[in-house]
Each structure stands twice: as structure tokens, then as C-alpha cells.
Amino acid sequence: MSRPISTQWAFLIQFNANKQLIETNLRFAAQHGPVIVTGHSLGGALAQMAATEPKFQPLIARVVTFASPGINRERIKAIERYNQAHKSHEILSTHYRIKDKDLVPKGGEAWTPGQVHEFNMLDPQVSAGAIEFC
Description:
The chain is α/β, with parallel strands linked by helices. It has 3 helices and 5 strands, in the order αβαβαβββ.
């Protein structure tokens, strides 16, 4: 019987498999200055992981995630160290989540430093597709 793979290992596998592509695109996009990296769900975890990579950090201005799980605490410590040493170029994040109705943001260990905005889902019988800012 095989052991289940942890989400942190799954994120790392995806990140490492795409690291060269991520670097190529970051370098292209950041030709005129640092960029905002963003993602939804797994993409949000990968955006956070990119911001924790020392060689990518000068290329990144901000991280924005939507319904993203957290990433490994050691990676969070790496971005905190970077921010401490680079006060004029801190990489902060904005995380958007649906409160209590989405399991994905409940996963992972920690999130890159910044703001968290949570939203409530309204009753679909009353307001189809509506959300409410908390």
C-alpha cells in the first residue's frame, strides 16, 4: 500500500518541475521592474513559493492569491528574512478567501506575510453567486 503524498510535497514537485519556466517568465515580465505574482488555489501556492526563492525575489513586487493553501513554514521564514534585510523592497501579499465554505485555504502550514481578506458566501437561493465582504 502506498503512502499518501503531503500537500507540501505536491507543491514542491509542481514548483520544481516548472521552476525554469517560472524563472524565464519572471525575468521576461520584470524587464521594466518587479512584477505581481498571482494565482488561484495551487497557483496561489506556487506564486507564494516563487516569492520565497532568493533568485526570484528581486523580480517580485507583490503576491496576490485567491483561495490558496499555505506553504511550508521554512519557506515563509525565507521571505521574512528577505523582507527584514530589504526594507525598501519588502514582498508583501494579499490573500483572498471564502470564509468557512472552501477547504483549500485551510490547507498548508503558513502564508506569505501581508493582508488576508475573507468573504462570506450568501445563500444562493437569495442571491445567486453573490459574496459578502467580511
